[in-house]
Amino acid sequence: MVEFQVENMTCGSCANVISKSIKTIDPNVQVSVDVVSQTVRVDSILPENKLASLIEECGYPVSTSTVVER
Length: 70
Fold this sequence. Notes:
Structural class: alpha+beta
Order of helices and strands: EHEEHE
């Protein structure tokens, strides 16, 4: 599982856009978005850099990423 620190997320719509984008590429993914802490946790078979790219393509810059124990 990877946790991304994501800038400029301010509402539930932001969370939905990011979740849908990742689920389009990996339908079996588990995505948890916390708008208050501006974090996105993803459990996916996709590589970390691909996940970061998907988030950034939605218009939300990724400032850091951390591998988190499951």
